[in-house]
Amino acid sequence: MKKKGSTVFLAEDIKKVVSIPVFGNGRIIEPKFAEEIISSNKVDAVALARPLFADPEFPKKAMDGEDKKIIKCVACNKCMDLIMKMGKGAICSQWKKRDKAQKSRKGEKNA
What we know:
This protein has 111 residues and is mostly helical. The chain has six helices and two strands; from the N terminus they run H-E-H-E-H-H-H-H. The chain has helices at 8-15, 31-39, 50-54, 58-63, 78-85, 95-110; strands spanning 23-24, 45-46. The chain has a two-stranded parallel ribbon with strand order 1-2. The protein is flat.
C-alpha cells in the first residue's frame, strides 16, 4: 500500500519552479492531511480521485466537520484492477459501507 501523500513531494518540487497552481494527490484520504499539505505551501490544492469514488460526499462531510463519517478509500485497488486489467466498469470495496450509512441516515429521517 502506498503511503499517505505518496506523490506530494513531486508536486512540491514542481511548485517551486512554476507560477501556476499546482495540485497534489496520492493517498490523500483525510481532510486534515489535505489541509496540512496546503497550509504548509507544498501544493495549492489537492486532487481526489479514489477517495471520491469511495465516498462522493467526502468534500461535504469535510466542510461540515464530519471527518469521522467519511468512508475512506482503503487502497485495495479493486476499482483500478477491474478497469485497467479487465476492461470492465469499476466497483469499490467500500460501497457496502456507503450503502449501509445511507440506509442508516434514511432511517433516522423517517423516525
